[in-house]
Amino acid sequence: MQVHVRTTQNVFIHYPVASLGDRILAYLLDQLILIVFVVIMVTLYVQIKMIVIWAWLLSVAAPYLLYHLLFEIFMNGQSPGKRAMNLKVLRMNGTPASVGDYLLRWMFAFVDIHLMSGVIAVLTIAVGQKGQRLGDLVAGTTVVKLVQESEVTASEVFVQQESGYVPTFTQVVQLTEQDIELVRRALEVNRDTANPAPMMAVTEKIKSLLGVQTDMTPVRFLYTVIKDFQHLTAR
User: Is the dihedral of CA 94, 96, 98, 102 positive or negative?
Assistant: First the structure.
């Protein structure tokens, strides 16, 4: 199972759903952080001999209860444990989760994680095929593995067609599938390694072949060439 994330440049990146093992390890790391936090706070209170109940609840219980909710909201779908394991919460359609989504996940965590020591969550994730615990099912989210883009399954550049699209460079019909594949590979190299050299070379080559001049950036130009080619050759 994969979640398809569309970037601002119409590139689709396919992230695999996080494994049950990775999620358990991330959860245990978060629990370890919480345990250390509680131990430090208890030690501090003992040393300064403070026994005010409201102060205890405010400084220990509240952070403990709100840990996952606050971190996922302010760390864009990650807790420290998730970040250490390269995991992230996303909606099933690949868009970032909202505050409401994080809130639903947090609320239902009391059922599928805390109620039976995580048994419900483990069973729900193991039985389903989308890596969703009960809170994810309600919120429409899942947890993905943020592997390097060069390692992502089917990470090749794909440009989505738009209804009513009007081609910019009709000359692209002169190109071949091999030319377009070369354009895709150059864009992939630029995206994955931040090396623009192949992209720049391909840009000049395509401009020369088509006999066009444009003020577009190389990235925008090559994406436009792909879109135009897909549109004109699909008829």
Answer: positive
